[in-house]
Amino acid sequence: MLLSEREKIDDIKKIRRNAHQYYLERSKVYRKFLELEAAAFKDGALSKREKELIAVGISIVTNCEGCLEWHIREALEASATEAQIVEAVGVAIEMGIGPTSVSSRFAAAVLEYNTAPQKTS
Questions:
Q1: What is the model's pTM?
Q2: Burial 45-65 (b: 16+ CB within 10 A, else e)
Q3: 48 dihedral zone (left: phi>0; alpha: psi -120 to 50; beta)
């Protein structure tokens, strides 16, 4: 049975909440990760909102649905607008596809190299 998007999000929230508490109680590494996360997303040269928008894009490119659910909510709570999130998604789409154009140019160079007449000395 396929889950609806809402059911998937609800499941992700439930799993995250349970896993968070589990690891918070048992893992020093997880607690250190939470410190890292807090430091990474606090306002600095970039605002928390800008950092969350970056994280939305990275979440798309890395195909992390749980990350998307988290960072979209965090971006909204940090005053990002729907339009800003949609633009961040647009950048992620380009970054997911854009590297293929670079690889295709390299493929053309490899093809050209391998099909060019060989010079003999």
A1: 0.76
A2: eeebbbbbbbbbbbbbeeeee
A3: alpha
* φ and ψ of 2, to 5 deg: -85, 135
Query: pLDDT band at 12, cuts 50/70/90?
Result: confident
Is residue 16 a contact partner of residue 70, using CB atoms and an 8 Å limit? Answer: yes
Contact 91, 57 (CB under 8 A): yes
Rg, Å, the chain Cα set: 21
Higher pLDDT, 33 or 10: 33
Handedness of CA 48, 53, 56, 57 (dihedral sign): negative
- CATH superfamily entry for domain 43-112: AhpD-like (1.20.1290.10)
